[in-house]
Write a structure and sequence with these properties.
Blueprint: H1 6-15, H2 22-33, H3 41-53, E1 57-59, E2 70-72, H4 74-84, H5 96-101, H6 109-139, H7 144-164
Antiparallel strand pairs: 1-2
Helix pairs in contact: 2-3, 6-7
């Protein structure tokens, strides 16, 4: 059985909750994973036909505005189970802030201060969003693992903000 890519695996995992359209899958990914694993509209609509051709999902009846629901098949459940059983591999951190800071000596002091101020604002906003998501998850009957991913988001943003205080400004 071929290995699933992370986007396909995420879609199959989300479809365990029941049939969904592409838009519903995007919303479910945002609720369950937040910004910790970004799935774009183009990725969803590129992967769904691939999953159909592989027999991992099947098409349902078109709904309002020709919305097409997808449902996971037994083959898809087996493929997802096989994906879950594989090691996750090494984290791939592709942080645009770190890339720019890696060339910090080439920045002017003003550029560096601006870069760090913008990063602070972005991560304070992200922290607020993770806290809001966590609060919403805790008030419902959320999956304990969705709560754990939201808690990670909060911890990550808090750590990054603390780290930003240590970055030299030139």
């Amino acid at each position: 059985m071929p290995t699933l890519n992370p986007t396909s695996a995420a879609l199959l995992g989300l479809l365990h909750d029941g049939p969904m359209t592409g838009g519903e899958l995007l919303a479910a990914a945002k609720t369950r994973l937040g910004t910790l694993w970004n799935i774009t509209r183009s990725q969803v609509y590129r992967e769904l036909p691939v999953l159909v051709r592989a027999g991992h999902v099947k098409l349902g009846k078109s709904g309002a505005r020709a919305a097409q629901p997808y449902a996971i098949t037994a083959t898809g459940k087996r493929a997802f189970g096989a994906w879950l059983a594989t090691p996750p591999g090494v984290d791939h951190l592709r942080n645009p802030l770190l890339l720019r800071l890696g060339f910090g000596r080439q920045h002017t002091k003003a550029q560096l201060r601006s870069l760090l101020a913008d990063a602070r604002a972005d991560h304070e906003s992200a922290l607020a969003a993770h806290r809001d998501r966590l609060a919403r998850l805790r008030t419902g009957t959320a999956d304990q693992f969705a709560v754990a991913t939201a808690e990670y988001g909060v911890a990550y943003e808090k750590a990054l903000l603390k780290w930003l205080d240590t970055v030299p400004t030139g």
